[in-house]
Structures are given as C-alpha cells and as structure tokens.
Amino acid sequence: MTPDEFAALTLSLKVAAASLALLAIPGVFLGWLLARRDFPGKTALDVLVHLPLVLPPVVTGWLLLRCFGRRGWLGAWLHDTLGISLAFNWKGAALAAAVMALPLLVRAVRLAIALVDRGLEEAAATCGANPWRVFITVTIPLAAPGLIAGFVLAFARSLGEFGATITFAGNIPDQTRTLPVAIFAYTQLPDGDAAVSRLAIASVVLAVLALVASEWLTRRWQRRLGSAS
Amino acid sequence: MIAVDVTLDRGRFNLHAQFAAGAGITGVFGPSGAGKSTLLHLLCGLLRPTRGRIAIGETVVVDTAARVFVPTHRRRVAVVFQDGRLLPHRSVTGNLRYGERLLSAAERRIAFTDVVELLRLAPLLTQPVAKLSGGERQRVALGRALLSAPRLLCLDEPLSAVDHDLRDGILPYLRLVQNALKIPMLYVSHDLSEVLALTDRMVLLNAGRVAGAGALIELAAQPALVPMLHALGLVNVLAADAQDDALTLSDSVVLHGPAGGAQGRVTVLIAPQEVALATAPVAGVSIRNQVPGCISAITATRERTLVTVDIGVPLLAEVSSEAVTRLGLACGQLVWCLVKAQALRVLGT
Q1: Which of B91, B130, B148 faces A127 most closely, judged by CB atoms?
Q2: In this predicted complex, what is the ipTM?
Q3: Mutate to test the interface with B, among A120, A127, A136 (most CBs of B within 10 A)
Q4: Which of A110, A210, A203, A206 is nearest to A153 (CA)?
Q5: What is the pTM of this model?
Q6: Is A119 within 8 Å of B145 when comparing Cβ atoms?
C-alpha cells in the first residue's frame, strides 16, 4: 500500500469513529423515543430520521451543504460564533457519515428496545429505580445484542459512505478522501487498477473484522444473559 | 393502614375501588377480569387513576384533587409479580440486591443475610436466574421485594405459575415474612383457598367494583356474596395444634385427620360441602369427627344454604335448602358437625 492509500484507510477509520461518537447518544435516544413514547409529531420525526435512507445520498449531501456549508444558515453561525467549519474537511465527512448512518442505528435500537420486556422495567421501578436507572440497568443491557448490531451497521455505513461525503465534504487528500472516495478517484486514473484492488481488499477486510467483532460481542453477551452468575 | 378510593375510566373497562386495609395480610380476591391487577398497578403507580386518592400509612401517594402523584420508584410499594420478573442478566444475588442498593443505609430496614435465611436462599445465590424452578423464582422475587424495604408489599397471584404441589412450600414463607417483618401485604388471587391459608381479611372485587370487604365469616353471611365465594373456592380455614393425627382447635375441640407428619401450629382447610349437619350425635357411622356447636347464621341462596356453626370457632357448612327445612334448622340451635377425616387438608407452618 502506498502512503496515499494508507492515509485514505486511516482517514476512513477516523471518520467512522467520529461518526459513531457523534451518533451514539442521539441514535440511542431517538431509538428509545420511537420505541417507548407516544407524542405529537412522532411520525414526522420518524420520517425525518429515515429520510437519509431513502433520499439519493447526493441530495442528502447537498442538503447538508445548504445547512452546514460556510453560507448555510447553521454553518455560518457555527463559523462565526464557534469558529468551526464543517464543509470540505474531515469533520464534515464525519457529519455526512453520521447523518447517513443514523437511520440504520435508530432502526436497530428501536427494534431492540421494543423487544425488551416492559414487565422487567416495571419490576425495576417498583424496586425503587428511577426511569434513568431503569434505562441504564435494565433496558440497555437487555437490548445490548441489538444495539451492538446497530452500531456495527452504523460503523460499516460510515466507512462506506460516498455520495453525501463527496457532495458535502469533497475529495481532499488527508481531509475527506476516505476509502470509497479514494477508490472512486483511482478508478478515474488510467493506471489506478492496482490501487483500487488494494483498497477494495482493505475494505473487505475491515467489513469482515467488524462483523466478526459484532458476532463475538453478541455471543458473549447472550451467554451472559442465558447464564448470569 | 392503606386507604383507597380511586376511579379509573378506560373505555371498555372501568374500576371503582374504595376500601381500607389494615396491617397484616389482606387478600384481594375476585374472578379474572375483576380488576385485581389494575388495582395493584394503581397502588404501585404503574397506572394513574382518573380520579381519587390512595394513602399508604401517613403518605398520600395519589390525590388527583390535590394533584399529587408519587412516581413508582419513590412509592416504596414492592410487587411480587405473577411471573417473578427477575432480571435475566443478573445473578440471584444481583436480583436480590437490586432494590437494596438504591437505599441509603438508614433506609435498609431488612438485612440481606436475614432475607437469605428467612427464605432459605443460600443455595441459590450463585445460580443463574434461568436455571431456577418456578417456586425458587418466586422466593427470589419475594426476597428482592423485601430488600427494597417496602411500606407495602403487593403479591400479584404469585403462585399461579407455580406447581400446585409446590404451593404449600411457599405459603409458609409468606407467613414467616409476615410474622418476622410486619410489612402490610396485599395478596391478589383468584383462588380463595390460597388466600385463606394466609389471612381471613379480604377485599372482594367483581367487575371493577368492591363487592365486599372484611373478614371471610362476615362476607359469607351476605347472601349476595355466597355464589361468588363459592365459585372461587370457599373453604373453612382453622388454626390448630397438631399432635400426630389430633388437631386441637381450642381447649375442647379436637379434630382427627391426616396431619402428614406436621407437628405444632398448622392450618386446617375444610370445604363447607364436606361438613354435614345432624341434630343429634350419630352412632354407628364411619365419620370420625362429630363436633357440637350452635348455629350462628344461616345464609340461603337459590342453589345452596350456608350454615355457620359456632364450634368454638365459626365453621361453615353447606347443606341443601331442603335439609334446612327437613331438620328445622334455625339460629341458636345445637347441631353436630360431621366431617370425615379424609376431608381435612393440613398445611404446616
């Protein structure tokens, strides 16, 4: 692997990790909200969360640009007050990946939490646990296998995000040239085939590692659920 | 002391319950669909009443007029659910200590070791929850509830998921808990014999209304309640001292029956239809128990007549209305209660 290709790989990992960090709390919160609460506007929120899943990624990227770009209404505010700029740097790539992965995470969390026996949550409450403690000590541990699957899915989506990233963050080496963007760039070069195959192999290896890790975590957890001692 | 006066409107089903329960065990009792579990959910705060007020001891936990609603986790109303509801990702110890951990040292009125000893949980502590039998699960659930130091302990048909043979092995634990810890308890059940083995104080629910509240013998004297009590398995519950097959109810009253090796304080159950009445002692009969007493009440309904005979303690006998007329039974009359030894069911404590 050339240093450029290696940089694309490490940047992808960095972007995916940042995307997960950005997603974790809102993703779990939204999943719980949609699984357990009824409130006005629930359908609208559901649709909004799922939009990136059904919209063409390029459109999502363009919408992000309109919002978070230097002249976007949120982007201008972020730049003027906090000095943060998101468009065309790695933070923007992480944001694009997070937005694209959000629906996958929320769906998995929602399903996992919906399957947790509410009777157990009620029993914990009658033992004196407040709602937050019930969530942390009962809901989350019992939903863990589904949550792990959701996070792996979100991580994989973040690694592979292309359309929204290239639209919102562009193709800047060391900044926004993630694995898929690099692969696309190399396919445009006459002698890029070797580089493309090396990066493709790296992608496959990463994907397999993520799946194996999730399987291992899930099994470990289920063994604990089956025979806690 | 628990004072309840609540209404819950939920379209098809509505519950209106007004009663008071004292210290000790109170049975909440009625056919399925009567609103027993709903009442219990209102007590522990898992449901909000449409209107009304609930006070547990000095504390008002719900008062819709005063906009008071204490959430479940601050009510200190512990529940032993039908299916135990143990946390599958925690060990037996982890379950037992779940509520205890949330209490400050001053609030921990019941020691972990005492609960383990009382409920004989020591051999289970290291076992996974998934491997427990139905009876063991309920003992752990009971222990967990006790360790959360409740002001009121609710038991929601705790034995319905337990084999019938094991029941007699769990009820004594509840009596032990009651004697040792003096926590007020509401015991929800649709099986009268289960409740009566613990207490004779009860609240009868039917179709979302309180049909009656008080001691069993008072309730059995109300003709309107007799069919319901009967359908739910009305049974005489007598405290006795067992010595071999002699069961002493009071100084002069001794019944004979299979004690099954139990010695000391026991509970004797006799179904009213197993008690026959005679106006004089009967000679030359295989029935071993013949106990004299005065008739204190006759409750007649269309199908059956319940006769309460004071044999030192009240004993319910069920006879046909025809027999009442033929024998000319009346209040104050002296009769002999005939009970086969085999009709006695003896529960050890």
Answers
A1: B148
A2: 0.79
A3: A127
A4: A210
A5: 0.80
A6: no
